[in-house]
Amino acid sequence: MANKNIKFEYKGIKYTLEFTKRTERMMEANGFNIGLVGDKPQTMIPELFAGAFLCNHRSTKRELIDEIYDQISDKEGLLTKLGEMYNEPLEALMDSQGNLNWEASW
Amino acid sequence: MGSILVGDAFREIKGDVLDGASLFSKTYEQEFPKYLFYGMTEEQYWDGENYLPSAYRKAYDMKLKHDNMIAWYQGRYVYDAIISLIPALNSFGNGKFEPYVEKMYPITMSEFAEIEANHNKQKSIDNAVGFLQGWAAKVNAERNK
Predict the structure, then answer these.
(1) DSSP B14
(2) Is A96 within 8 Å of chain B by CB?
(3) Which DSSP symbol is given to B98?
(4) Closest by alpha carbon to B45, among B57, B29, B58, B32?
(5) How far is A63 from chain B (nearest CA, A)?
(6) Could you tell me the CA-to-CA distances from A28 to A86, B47, B66, B113 in Å, in that order?
(7) Contact A21, B46 (CB under 8 A)
(8) pLDDT per residue rounded down to tens, chain B (145 residues)
(9) Which of A65, A106, B51, B90 is most buried, judged by most C-beta within 10 A?
(10) Which candidate, A83, A2, A100, A98, places its Cα nearest to that of A48?
């Protein structure tokens, strides 16, 4: 029952991107805010992508991460998946702790 | 950030979360002691798989129910002990007390299944005895005609 993750291979190295509570805490302590992705996409999306390396590939150079990010074809799809992955630890922590249902309008 | 390692770029923090952190970190910080109380280790909570918090919550609920059941049984045993002593304390009881419950109360599924099986067995015997008694009464009635 693994966490949600993104797997790919780049230049012969296999990568598994995922978030944990610890890595999200590290990201947020350094200024990342998932709520600002819409307002500051140019800075926040690469940060989100780089943060996903913290769990399993902490020794990866930021330069290489940016290079990989530039090579990503479906960036919109990537962002959606990264968002889902980022939400997962919080959702798992809070599920079934409340019974107030809500609904989004879109 | 050039060629800085991603692990260095996002430095790890110890202790309380910094001011201005988003809902996520704050929630993780707030919930952390609760999950330590549930029995999770620090590593399981911060680095572990996401299904773990839910499993620990369910396990804690089970433990509460279990503890409650044990407390209830203990109360029943104490109650029975007091009840068995009442005749001895009663002035008309000749100083004798009733024996304490001979068997432990059933608590496991197998014990309940055994009781049900015994109950069904006794029911079958009672039915057979009832049938034979009815048949004998019918035979006797015909013979006396």
Answers:
(1) -
(2) yes
(3) P
(4) B32
(5) 5
(6) 12, 16, 40, 55
(7) yes
(8) 446 776 666 655 555 544 445 679 999 999 999 999 999 999 999 999 999 999 999 999 999 999 999 999 999 999 999 999 888 887 766 778 888 888 888 888 898 888 889 989 989 999 999 989 998 998 998 888 7
(9) A65
(10) A83
| Cα nearest neighbour of A49 on chain B | B6
Q: Which residues of B touch A57 (CB under 8 A)?
A: 6
Enumerate the residues of chain A whose CB falls inside 8 A of the CB of residue B53: 92-93
Q: Which amino acid is at A17?
A: L
Nearest chain A Cα distance for residue B63, angstroms: 17
Cross-strand bridge partners of residue A17:
A6
B71 sits in the region (left: phi over 0; alpha: psi -120 to 50; else beta) called: alpha
Model confidence over A35-92: pLDDT tens digits?
A: 888 888 888 899 999 999 999 999 999 999 999 999 988 888 999 999 999 999 999 9
Report how far residue A83's alpha carbon sits from residue A79's, in angstroms, rounded to the nearest whole number.
6
Q: Is the Cα torsion angle A22, A27, A33, A38 positive or negative in sign? A: negative
The pTM of the full predicted model, rounded to 2 decimals, is 0.69
Q: Say whether residue A78 is in contact with chain B using an 8 A CB cutoff.
A: no
Contact A78, A72 (CB under 8 A): yes
How is residue B22 written in tokens?
Answer: 């988003």
Can you give the pLDDT at residue B35? 96
Q: Which residue of A has its CA nearest to B7?
A: A58
Q: What per-residue confidence (pLDDT) applies to B59?
A: 95
pLDDT at position B45 is 97
